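lol so apparently i was supposed to do this last week
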Amino acid sequence: MRTQIAAANWKMNKTLQEGTQLLNDILSSDIDPSTTQKVIFAVPFPYLTVSNDVIKGRANIHIAAQNCHHKISGAYTGEVSVDMLDSIDIKYCIIGHSERRELFDESNQVIAEKLNLCLGKGLTPIFCCGEALSIREAGTQNDYVENQLNESLFHLNKVEIQKIVIAYEPIWAIGTGKTATSEQAQEMHAHLRNVLAKQYGSDIANNISILYGGSVKGSNAVELFGQPDVDGGLVGGASLIPSEFVQIIKALK
Ligand code: PGA
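anyway here it is w/ 2-phosphoglycolic acid bound
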């Protein structure tokens, strides 16, 4: 079975005290991810080390960064490198979130460079893709997302591609309360798996976890995660509310 993942993306929310409380509230509830499940918290940079301490000793629970820079090191004031993340024992990093693409002009090429650096250091990238509303309305979302994979992922070899987690996040569903229907999610996830199968073969495509993101909540997670090609979720707003995120974790297959 593919790994099923509930990943929290806190974005730029919570103070250290509030975030630690949030983590502790979730960890002290009755969650116990199995060996085929993972729970990941993508917290702001300043909380990575403290958060790693908070989850210490908990099986199948990890801390992620929300971003990294696409150069190894140098004069990039304010940026954080993959080497820095590695040096504080961070094993996961969100790459290419739509907010980074839109607000910080990240291109598919820059995202490919970030993926390479992560893989080089043994970090698992959570690679985000997804279309804007105008593309969905034009009906060209399948081609658009396929191109994102093509330009950011398909230089990877058969071993490397299996080290990636993909998150499909339609931009029109992020933070809007407007979730994709489970049919829309399944349709795109199946398309992505087909595209991966064409490139790498179906055994490899069937091994890659594809998460859905965009207004995932406690109340819709069972339905979304129940789809055959949906392997969990990348969750923003609802991951900031302990009871909601616990319900989402419990909805994993
Ligand atoms: P949302 O955000 O759950 O608040 O829609 C998801 C994301 O941006 O990863």
